[in-house]
Amino acid sequence: MARSTFGRKGPVAYLLRLLVIAYLFFLVAWPVSLVVTNTFDEGFVSISDLFADPDVVTALRLTLIAAVSAVVINTVFGVGISLLLVRYEFPGKRALSALIDLPLSVSPIVVGLALVLVYGGREGWLGPTLERVGIQVIFSTPGIVMATAFVALPLVIREVVPVLTEVGIEQEQAAESLGANAWQRFVRITLPSVKWAIVYGVVLSLARSLGEFGAVKVVSGNVLGETRTATLVVEEKYLNFDQQGAYATAFLLAMVSVACIVVVSLIRPKSHD
Amino acid sequence: MTSIELGRPAKIRRSARSTLTPVSGLGLGIAMLWFSLLVLIPLTAVMVTAVDGGWDTFWAAVTNAQTAAAIRLTVFTAVGVTLVNIVMGPIIAWVLVRDRFPGKAVLEILIDIPFALPTIVAGLVLLSLYGSDSPIGIDIVNQRPAVFVAFLFVTLPFIVRMVQPVLEELDRDVEEAAASLGASRFTTFRRVILPSLTPAIAAGAALSFARGVSEYGSLVLLSGNLPNKTEVTSVRILSSIENDQRASAAAVAAVLLVISLVVIVVLDIIQRRVARRG
Fold it and tell me: Which Pfam families does the record associate with it (chain A) (predicted)?
């Protein structure tokens, strides 16, 4: 089949190929490579400077804690919701499955505003009550975790649902007839069959969570050394004319997300084809 | 679980077609509680705060000259970018699926970079080629094209990734049959390939539009956020939040939320239609 297309490949095919390569080169490849060269203008100094700054280290640690917490929450929630959506019928299922996608298209600033309106310490719907029992959400780590969890919410579900639908329930029914209980069926049969979809979803969620900026900016208060995350450091450094620092931090974040993509593209052929 | 299910068939009529067991019902309850606390209640709070001060306050906030300019810029740019994506997306997907050449795997990774890259880093990335230190002498910082380029960057993967799997599954035999019956390549494309790609393109376009309208991070460093010129809706909302004008922030946010909801509904309709046909 491939041979026949090769034989028939006209000038249009080459033109399209050229167009696509040029488009992606100017839009993605060249700009991304410039960030790398800008970072290493003066060798590794800019990166090591970064780790010498305690505020940056605190920011990186906060970003990591928030991202990992959000990914754990979203994975547990995501797998649970996927099972419910695929395996059970209940009223309101269609609405729920459509609403799950909502966080992907809501502006991060709106996400931040929404959380502040409910959990804000002064005038929020639930904030003052929570603060009375000693839980501060906005301008604190829980708020950052919630904002991060909100924006990455659908990613695991979107990966797991199609695989779960495709796998079907025959094997589980067989196991059930052989006397396996619900937990055994879940751990021995359901989980292994969606394992790669979960890994794929987790990797995407992690990349998204580490990079969240707008929502975190609104809920965190952006306090240096306390609630400032890595993406906020990039902005602050750039606006304070510390371009080297901004590029170095951006490079670190970009490295992690590109690593995530490479992992994903290595996994994908095995699970989907 | 089966024993419980079989043990109480009478319960089935409780709701039209619920197949929930006690354990999965509890799971659904917990999941809904978390989903409500995280997503539904906060988004409802935005809507309620938006209309709290009455319709006049809402309308005044939305039609404020600077806000209206921001909404116009955001929506028009998002439409323009989506149109570019409608043309470029399927072409990129086509080359990725049908063409073979060394280095194609690199293009695959390039497509995903805008999705994975933190938005603030995306802004910095574009700044390095299209900013004041541009090696090719194109400086679009603080100008409207900056908004366009930023949207173009962040929305790149949506249509490509929607169209690609459909194109992979497309039956080549049908195309070859059309060709053998004398259809030109253009006719084959228009009558055979395009109709099966349309739902995927539409779904990708909806996502791409929604993403453009809601974009914030990549513009912070790139567009300068100049009022009436390069200020987009998200930035406008943020400055209202920072000035403690919650009502007007919520009003503009509500406009964006309605756009997101419309997109979700459109996507749901497209998916149902495809599922019914397939």
Answer: BPD_transp_1
- Give tens-digit pLDDT for A157-203: 988 998 888 888 888 888 888 888 888 888 888 888 888 889 989 99
Question: Which top CATH class is B55-277?
Answer: mainly alpha
Burial of B8 (0-12, 13-18, 19+ CB in 10 A): exposed
pLDDT band at B13, cuts 50/70/90? Answer: very low
Strands (E), B191-250: none
Domain ranges for chain B, please list them: 2-48, 55-277
Q: Once rounded to an integer, what is the mean pLDDT over residues A115-131?
A: 87
Taken in order A92, A94, A100, A102, the sign of the CA dihedral is: negative
Q: Helix B246-277 to helix B41-52 angle, to the nearest 10 degrees?
A: 130
Alpha carbons B10 and B115: distance in angstroms, whole number? 49
Q: Which residues of B touch A98 (CB under 8 A)?
A: 264-265, 267-268
| Residue B177, token pair as written in the block | 């049959």
Domains annotated for chain A, with CATH where assigned, are 54-272 (1.10.3720.10)
Which of A169, A91, A86, A81 has its CA nearest to residue B18? A91
Helix A243-272 vs helix B104-116: angle between axes, to the nearest 10 degrees?
A: 120
What pLDDT sits at residue B192? 81
> Which of B1, B12, B40, B43 should one mutate to test binding to chain A, selecting the residue with the greatest count of A CBs within 10 A?
B43
pLDDT in tens, A77-93: 999 999 999 988 898 88
Show Cβ contacts of residue A39 under 8 Å, excluding neighbours closer than 6 positions: A46, A47, A244, A247, A248, A250, A251
User: Hunting for tokens 């009478």 — which residue is that?
Assistant: B10
- For B128, the closest of A4, A35, A91 (CB atoms) is A35
Q: Which residues of chain A are within 8 Å of residue B261 when distances are taken between CB atoms?
A: 102
Indicate the range of A10-24, A36-50, A111-125, B207-221 predicted with least confidence: A36-50
Residues 6+ apart with CB under 8 A from A225: A54, A55, A58, A59
Q: How buried is residue B53: exposed, middle or buried, by Cβ count under 10 Å (0-12/13-18/19+)?
A: middle
